Amino acid sequence: MKKTFQVENVKCGGCAATLKNKLEPIFGEIEVNLEKEPREITLKIADDQIETLQAELRSLGYPLSTDELGFVDNTTAKVKSFVSCAVGKIEGEDC
Fold first, then answer.
1. Domain 2-90, what fold?
2. What are the extents of the domains in the chain?
3. pTM, full prediction
4. Average pLDDT score over the chain
5. For residue range 19-30, what is the model confidence (pLDDT) as tens digits?
6. What SS3 string covers the chain?
């Protein structure tokens, strides 16, 4: 079933490229909406895969908006998202 999730720390096309490059091999096609705040991703996902998606997003620095993160985890996510964004830019997406 296709579902939409709100994701934190997504700023630009570099971030979107990283999300697509890292998540598509696991979940298939990913749509990233940069027009909404917080940003949204849409993908076909089974309910039993949501925890895997959540863990993958956190590892990239883009937690779900519903994730409750403490100060350290929130700060760590923001740092990871800057790195993920830079990787996306290097791979060809402009901000």
1. Alpha-Beta Plaits (3.30.70)
2. 2-90
3. 0.79
4. 85
5. 999 999 999 999
6. CEEEEEECCCCCHHHHHHHHHHHHHHHCCEEEECCCCCEEEEEECCHHHHHHHHHHHHHHCCCECCCCCCHHHHHHHHHHHHHHHHHHHHCCCCC
